[in-house]
Specification:
Layout: H1 3-15, E1 33-37, E2 42-47, E3 50-56, E4 78-86, E5 94-97, H2 102-111, E6 120-122, H3 129-134, E7 142-143, H4 146-155, E8 161-165
Parallel strand pairs: 1-8, 6-7
Antiparallel strand pairs: 1-2, 2-3, 4-5, 4-8, 5-6
Length: 166
């Protein structure tokens, strides 16, 4: 490099310090894992073992413990997958979860119960945002704000693994 080229390079790197870095500001990477911690009320999106985004969530109206049967107001716990995207959800947008999985079905069958179905990660729809922050209100789903579900919906693909912990 000539003396002038070195000076220009140095000056350019002072004026534009991030020009040589690929940035993802405002556009997180697509996650390959979702994790929910019910007790903490957090949904985290992971890419290669690193959290790329986390959201405050609301759960079923009776959130403690494992979902046993339809209508119990509990959010299930275990390993699941995102099955599909629903752009026509009454809760703005939603991501389907493969609940009940084979373990949920077996547990319910052994107790003579219907495990339920239709568990989603979804927005609020027309629900009041303030009420969303005050208490758990879903039938067992995982709820975020409409703005948050829009971002999650764009990032998460069907087939993504979801772990739900107590």
């Amino acid at each position: 490099m000539t003396k002038i080229s070195k000076r220009r390079f140095f000056l350019f790197s002072l004026l534009f310090p991030f020009a040589f870095f690929k940035t993802s500001w405002g556009h997180p990477s697509k996650p390959n894992l979702l994790v929910v911690w019910k007790k903490k009320r957090v949904l985290a999106l992971y890419r290669n073992s690193k959290i790329i985004k986390a959201y405050r969530i609301r759960l079923g109206f009776n959130p403690k413990g494992q979902k046993q049967k339809e209508g119990d107001g509990k959010t299930p716990e275990g390993k699941y997958y995102i099955t599909h995207k629903n752009p026509n959800s009454k809760f703005y947008l939603s991501l389907g979860i493969n609940f009940p999985n084979k373990f949920d079905k077996k547990r319910a069958l052994n107790k003579g119960l219907n495990p339920g179905s239709d568990i989603f990660i979804h927005g609020l729809g027309k629900k009041n945002v303030l009420l969303h922050y005050m208490f758990d209100w879903t039938e067992g789903c995982i709820a975020v704000t409409n703005k948050e579900i829009k971002e999650i919906y764009e990032l998460v693909e069907p087939g993504t693994v979801l772990y739900i912990y107590a």
